[in-house]
Structure formats: C-alpha cells, structure tokens
Amino acid sequence: MLESKVLLIEDDSAIVENLSAFLKGEGFEVTAADGQHKALEQIEEERPDLILLDVTLAQGNGYSTCTAIKARYDIPVIFLTALGDEFSVVTGLDMGADDYISKPFRPRELVSRMRSVLRRTGKSGKAIHVRELKIDMEKGSVTRAGDELFLSALEYRLFLVFLNHRGKILSRGQLLEEIWDVAGEYVNDNTLTVYIKRLRDKIERDPQNPEIIKTVRGLGYRMEG
Questions:
Q1: Is the pLDDT assigned to residue 180 strictly greater than 70?
Q2: By 3-state DSSP, what share of the chain in percent is helix, strand and coil, each rounded to 5?
Q3: Which of 223, 220, 199, 202 is nearest to 212 (CA)?
Q4: How far apart are CA 37 and CA 49, in angstroms?
C-alpha cells in the first residue's frame, strides 16, 4: 500500500489529470469523482484516507458534499477551490473541513498541508517494505538494514512510479509519461535507461540480476509485488 489513498472530487478534467499525476509521483494513490453522488459511492467502496474537494461540482456542491461526508465518515477533507474569499473559507471550515486551499496553489505546499492534515488526524501512512528496503514516505527516504540509500530526486520519483504500480508491467512509454509530469527536466528514452540503471545500482543487491525491478523482455519493467 502506498502512503495514503486520496479521493479528488473535482469536475475539471484537466485539473484531475495533472494533479493526479503529480500526487502519484509523490507516492499517493489517487482516484477521482466529479460529483457528490459518485463521490459518496466511491468513499463507501474505497475508504480513502483524505479527500480533496472543490466547491463547484458537476452534481451537487462542495459544501453539501463535505457535510454528507462528515456526517457518515471519519475522513479528513481539504477544500481545494478557486473561491478564496473570506466568506467561502469560513463557510468551508464551518462545514467541518480540515483545511482550505485556494487555487492557484503551489503543488509542494499542497502536499505539505496534505501530510500535515494526515498526521493531525492519525491517517498518515506507515512505512512501506519491499524485500529488504524500507520506504519512509513522509521523510522521502529509502533504507536497507538501517542504512540510507541516497537517491537523486529523479531516481526517487522513478522509484515511486514503480512502487505505485507494484506487480504491474510498465512500458518505457508509460514510465516516460509518468516521470515527465514531475521531473521538471527533459527525459528521453536514453535518459530513462540511465536512470533505471542508476536506481538498480542503489537498490538491488546484485544489479546485474535484479530482484526488485525486473525487466520483462519486449514489454517493459515490473516491480515485484
């Protein structure tokens, strides 16, 4: 399981796509709903750890959705909306929201405040273990037997992509698409090869015979579940 499961309740498809990609790159498991009815159904099925909620929705509105969520579930809610005036903020908090963030927002600040709410509400995820590795999502660290493995920013983000899709085959195209969204620099096919090699050199006991990130000939790569 990843750090935390997040439900994004938002009816703007571009925001859903971009924010979901960014949050997945940060280690969150993200699903989305565009209206109140669908959101409540997904909450019942998925039981997310945190909800990001817009005020304006395709069906219903954020205030009534927040009220419905808080009446039924013990799940923290963060309003994420363009309505940043004092009345809207106070109304959102009065509905029981745990935080209120106005658009446009800085992605790093959003993640920091999400983790703060998760810690405060006791929903923060625990460390993840993959074979001998321990991944502390809050600290952004990877250790083996207590010794930290020093990954570069892009190596760590690539590692999180594999972690987010454990047991699944990822093509090179999928990997490029995932890390392009969060890398902030040009990543081409040759660069991907270099970073996969560097990552294996650091996390594998025997990089020539990898046991964590395996090559699936002709298809791509897979992190063992």
A1: no
A2: 45, 25, 35
A3: 223
A4: 19
Inter-CA distances, 96 with 63, 88, 117, 183, 224, Å = 9, 13, 13, 35, 40
List of residues 6+ apart from 178 with CB closer than 8 A: 21, 24, 25, 161, 170
104-143 tens-digit pLDDT: 888 888 988 898 888 777 666 666 788 888 888 767 789 9
pTM for the model: 0.58
Give the helix ranges, DSSP H, for the chain: 13-25, 36-46, 62-72, 86-94, 107-120, 153-164, 172-183, 189-203
* Nearest CA among 132, 193, 109, 190 for reference residue 158: 193
Domains for the chain: give ranges and CATH numbers. 5-120 (3.40.50.2300), 128-223 (1.10.10.10)
